[in-house]
Amino acid sequence: MTVLADLKPGQCGLISGFRDHGPLVQRMMTLGVLEGNEVKVIRLAPAGDPIQIEILGYSLSLRRSEAAVIDVENVR
Q1: Domain 2-73: which CATH number of 1.10.287.3510, 2.40.50.100, 2.30.30.90, 3.30.750.24
Q2: 25 in helix, strand or coil?
Q3: Both ends of the chain: CA-CA distance in Å?
């Protein structure tokens, strides 16, 4: 299984689940990071952290550690 933190800029995938179920995941879910939603990596900061993604038509920045708990599939 691939995690969002492994995607490169320009790659897209479908969120297929989470590797954690704590408050971090609850916070991300309120921001629209939900199973079945498509996510696209827009860019990485020069040091690789944070990661800018596009989901539901808006831009969101996540720490690499936050993106590492999001499973994605159908990466293209």
Answers
A1: 2.30.30.90
A2: helix
A3: 14
Q: What distance in Å separates the CA atoms of residue 5 and residue 71, rounded to the nearest whole number? A: 9
The kind and range of the H/E element at 66 are helix 64-67
* Ramachandran angles phi, psi of 11, nearest 5°: -80, 145
Q: Could you report the per-residue pLDDT of 16-70, keeping only the tens digit for each?
A: 999 988 899 899 999 999 999 999 999 999 988 999 999 999 999 999 999 999 9
Could you identify the residue written with the tokens 């921001």?
A: 31
- Entry pTM: 0.90
